[in-house]
Specification:
- The chain has 82 residues and is α+β, with helices and mostly antiparallel strands.
- It has a domain at 6-22 and 33-70.
- Helices cover 21% and strands 23% of the residues.
- It has helices at residues 18-22, 32-43, and strands spanning 6-12, 51-55, 60-66.
- It has a three-stranded antiparallel beta sheet, with no helix packed on it.
- Strand 2 (51-55) and strand 3 (60-66) form a beta hairpin.
Length: 82
């Protein structure tokens, strides 16, 4: 994107997001997406739309939008450590 925003799209062909949510045990609250939102908000409090989740039957599509404050580019071409 021209303003430096990076769009990341993750797609899979699994069972989707709805079925696993229905199969969770009573009282279980998934916190993964909430934690991601909180962390992105800390990196750029002015940003308002971080990601969208779409059921694609089968599977799920997630789109992340990262503003320049949320990432940094490096010139190091060596692979990341495992």
């Amino acid at each position: 994107m021209n303003d430096g925003t990076v769009m990341i799209e993750i797609c899979d062909n699994g069972v989707g997001i709805e079925l696993p949510l229905k199969e969770k045990k009573n009282g279980h609250q998934s916190k993964g997406m909430k934690l991601i939102l909180e962390r992105l908000q800390l990196l750029d409090p002015a940003a308002n739309a971080f990601f969208t989740i779409q059921n694609t039957a089968p599977g799920t599509r997630i789109r992340l939008q990262l503003t320049p404050k949320m990432y940094r580019l490096t010139t190091n071409s060596s692979p990341l450590p495992h």
